[in-house]
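User: For my dataset I need records formatted as: sequence, then structure tokens, nothing else. Please produce one.
Assistant:
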Amino acid sequence: MTDVAAFPSRALVREERRRRLGPLSALTHVALFVWTVLVVVPIVWTFLASVKSEDEIFGDAWSLPARLRLDNWARAWEQAHIGQYMINSIVVVAFGTLGTMLFGSMAAYVLARYRFRGNRAIYLLFVSGLAFPVYLALTPLFFVVRNMGTVPVIGPFIGLNTHGGLVLVYIAYSLPFTVFFLAAFFRTLPGAVAEAAFVDGASHARVFFQIMLPMAKPGIVSVTIFNVLGQWNQYQLPLVLLNSDRDRWVLTQGIADISTAAGYDADWSALFAALSMAILPMLIVYTIFQSQIQKGLTAGALK
């Protein structure tokens, strides 16, 4: 029998690791603390400014408001049409993320689990999309989406100044990272369960949707959150593809419009209220799914 006492306890292992990585660990904690301050302080200041008057904002920036001016939020929601823009953003991001995860997970699964001629080349084509910043493709995307608007029947739904056209671009723009991440994750999943399902007569589609996809839930959740964050904060693509129809604008366009429409006479209180409205949903989403994101990022490495 194995002598249990021969194995060091977890406390001893942690203490030994802490001793060996002492200086490095201290520097890591300092860097994380500085990074936390750089991220948290602007967010707190934004929420604080959203309930202050303009005189209080430009007077003492860090003072507490004399009273909570919730009318700033109401003014941003109604007069600046932030409510409509937020609804547009929710619709676009919901369909964009759904399409990205559906097509991205299917492509990643095939590239990770099946061997066929051209597999590596297709994978590299997907990954190469990570090397191109979005602003390099703005002009070609404009003409591609404009030409899609001339397609009979479906053209009016996927052309310029349509949410459908923006959703398609969001999907295409998000696929490289999704395929890159999920392909690596699908490779770590055991194949014995899938092989047993094939022996029982399950189809490839059933094995994917009912067996492999649930097994990849940690990775799916992580990539989904990253795609939601990326598409929610996107500004350049909507600016180019939704340039003339204000009723179809998304939240980032509406926030930019508040700060630029009146020049130096902009409604700063409403602007910070609008920024708070844009930040709050993402904070809630990340807070709810924080543990799943961490599990998804570490599951592939641990396997």
